[in-house]
Specification:
Layout lengths: L11 E5 L11 H9 L4 E8 L5 E3 L20 H5 L19 H8 L4 E6 L7 H11 L6 E5 L2 H10 L4 E6 L6 H8 L3 E4 L6 H9 L3 E4 L5 H10 L3 E4 L2 H10 L5
Parallel strand pairs: 1-2, 1-9, 2-4, 4-5, 5-6, 6-7, 7-8, 8-9
Antiparallel strand pairs: 2-3
Helix pairs in contact: 8-9
Length: about 250
């Protein structure tokens, strides 16, 4: 699979934690729903467990998205796998388990590109473990590692310049291109509130793609598509699919 460049056409659909609005986030069930509804990419989050496994979960604790309690970094894989990660969302998903990243990589094969957010693990050895897994799984061509911790992104590039990275941020930067060059990323991932035509023009001129998050309102999706944003993360891939179908682009 090849990564989208700024001139490749309509915005691509990113399933935020799968299809977070329709299924229990960051589970295989959620990823399957997102893919069935037209998502081109799946966004997911990873933490390290106590025994060094890469766990797909957003929060640093299991409390919100399972029937358990406690910090992920203080729990073993076996303890995490014993928890129900689906019933909290709807009884239809009872028994769903929090997947490991290797399980998601095996499930997805190369059919769906992955945006993997590194969550708070820079000082815990998460980066080298993640980089090793990407290469061991032969998935470097369809994986982008993203983070709000730009030091973690630099660490990725120091270990493996070939792996694509994107910087998450919530700000209107004076010079986004300069920051991207300093961090060494290929993609900008700003919150949608900070996306405008100037940012897109400057980023695209520099060969950077712009992926924004998390957009659930069709009217905002439409504005971003008309601007020419490269991809949009949403909890409702079905909504974005419909909007893209009905919205002209600047391409």
């Amino acid at each position: 699979m090849t990564h989208r460049t700024p001139t490749d056409g309509p915005a691509r659909i990113v399933g935020h934690r799968g299809a977070r609005g329709l299924a229990p986030e960051n589970t295989l069930a959620s990823f399957q729903v997102a893919r069935d509804l037209g998502a081109d990419l799946l966004e997911l989050d990873v933490h390290l467990s106590k025994d060094g496994h890469l766990i797909v979960m957003h929060d640093p604790t299991v409390d919100r998205t399972s029937d358990g309690h406690g910090a992920l970094k203080q729990m073993t894989l076996a303890e995490i796998k014993a928890l129900d990660a689906g019933g909290w969302f709807d009884a239809r998903f009872a028994g769903e388990r929090a997947p490991t990243l290797p399980e998601v990589l095996e499930w997805s094969t190369s059919e769906t590109e992955l945006l993997i957010e590194m969550k708070g693990g820079f000082d815990q050895g998460l980066v080298p473990k993640l980089v090793d897994l990407v290469w061991e799984s032969d998935r470097a061509a369809d994986v982008t590692l993203i983070s709000f911790d730009h030091r973690a992104l630099q660490h990725v590039k120091a270990l493996s310049p070939e792996i694509r990275t994107g910087m998450l941020y919530v700000a209107r930067l004076v010079d986004s291109v300069a920051v991207a060059r300093g961090v060494g990323v290929e993609a900008l991932h700003p919150n949608w509130n900070y996306v405008d035509s100037d940012l897109l023009r400057e980023a695209h001129a520099a060969g950077l793609s712009v992926s924004t998050w998390t957009v659930n309102e069709p009217e905002i999706m439409r504005v971003l598509i008309e601007m020419g944003v490269d991809s949009i993360a949403t909890d409702y891939p079905d909504r974005l699919t419909a909007v893209i179908r009905d919205t002209p682009t600047t391409s």
